[in-house]
Each structure stands twice: as C-alpha cells, then as structure tokens.
Amino acid sequence: MKSLGVAVIGVGFWGKNHIRVFNELAETELKAVCDIEMERAKTIASQYGVEAYSDSQKMLKREDIEAVSICTWTTTHATEAMKAIKAKKHALVEKPIASTIKEARKIVDSAKRGNRHLMVGFIERFNPGVQRVKNLLKGGEIGELVSSTAKRVSQWPERIGDVGVVKDYAIHEIDIMRKIFEEDPTTVYARVGNLKHTKFEDYAQIMLTFKRGKTAFIEANWLTPDKVRSLTLTGSDAIMSLDYITQEISIETLEKTLTPRYKWKEPLKLELQHFAHSVLNDKEPEVTGVDGLKALIIAEAASKSSEKDSAIKLDLGKASN
Asked: Residues 154, 219: contact at Cβ < 8 Å?
C-alpha cells in the first residue's frame, strides 16, 4: 500500500499529537517537522528520526513531502497554508481555518485553483460517538429532530494565545450543528463576554436557527472547573445524549433509557487517516475548506450579534461558490 509523505508545521501542544498519529498510521510516513523554535523542533524530530526545520518554506521544497498538517497559532494559518498550497502540497489546517473571513476565502480559493486537497481540523466530525448519533438520527431513533444543545466548557487552556472561546471552542459545535441538521443556519444570536480574561472572550452562549423552526444552542467557556463535552438532541419521540469524551450515548424514551455499548476509538487517528485516504484516493475530504469558511463566518456573526445585541441573518450560499 502506498503511503503518504507528510510533515507537521507547529510542534506545540496539538502538533505533537499530529506527529504521533502520523507516525503510527500505516497510510502515512512522517518525513519532517517544523517549528519557529528550532530547539523544540529538533527535540521532537529526534524522537521520531526525522529532520527538523525552523523555516517551513525550506521544508516544503522537499519532493517527498506530499501533505502537511498546520498546527500553528491561528494568526499564522493563512500564511502557512498559502505556502503549502503554492508548494503544491495538500494541507490539513487546524481550526479555525484562519483569523479572518478574508484570509479563509483566500486559502479556499487558492487550494481550488491549485487542485490541492484542503481539510480543516474539526476533529469531532470523526468522533465515533458523533457518527453513531448521526446514524441513529437518520434511522428515526428519536423521531423528528426539534432542537440540539451542545456544551463545551472547561478551565482556561494554557495553549491558547490568539483566539477567544468562540473561535477555539464554540466553532467545533457550530460545525457539528451544521452536520447534525444537514443544512446551514439562517440566523445567529449570541451573548459573549469576559469574566476572568481581558484579551479574549472567555464565555459564549450562541443560538442558531434553522429552517422549519428548528434551533441549536451552544454553551462554551473557559471558566467551568470540570471539563464537559456534551451533545443533546431533542426529537419528537425521544432525547439522545452524547458524551464526546467517553463516546457514550443514551436514548431516553417514555418507557425506557437505552445505553448502547461501543468500543472507544481515537478521533484524531480517524481524522488523519481520513485525510491521508482523501489525498491518496483523490477524493474530497469529509471536512472541506468551505466547511471551515462557513464555520468561521458563523463564529464572527456570533461575536457581531453580541456586540449589537441583536440576531444576525446568515447567507452562507456564497461561501460555496
């Protein structure tokens, strides 16, 4: 089986996990790592027997590197993604796809023109629990979907440095709601603010409305002592709940509560394996650059809604063009 030559740009908290998984997968062969701090790059490169770089432009000249994961700070996503695409590399860009909508559009357009595969790191799309919930929903286990509620809360993550909780935490749930409802929301109303941190917002409550009166609610913060990652779907016949962390599902009906058992699987491994398969088989990935762009548009509209204290109408059709 042909393996995909890969490299990772940014070897901090999350980049190290990408490196580990790429090294474990049969579908990929880790060739190099890159970080602005050369000593950090050398340290992890030595663990995996690959070459270290501090200049991604130099690394991208290597012909044996076919694809890269970009795990740098959000403010550098656009720069690094554009370098990779211009070097004719396929790219997985961690969420959010970019700092601004303008940057995101540029990345998406460049990848399309260059015929490069572009995937955005919405890891929960590859959470087996989410995939099972989606299949159960399609199978009519809870009747017709009426509303969905997601909670992504925990204490301040030390790794965060250049985005607030909306683009770091809530954006995951924004993407999942688009997947669950199988359509784009039509309006967003949000309240965001700061309680403990002055540079970025540290809490957000977001409401998304969809066609036919269906609604999604998202709570995200960096304040709650306990780490919670949960999704609840309310249907006409039952309520289904998912714990993202344990991947456990429960279905409550009028007569009983069902808790089907499944084997836990690592979402990141499934995500990066899917990325490799997409490139090797020349197929569009599950999470495209357009998905990343749409999630960013909604996230920025949520912040705008809070500033104006009013609902913001969304028109995401143009993002697909």
From this structure: no
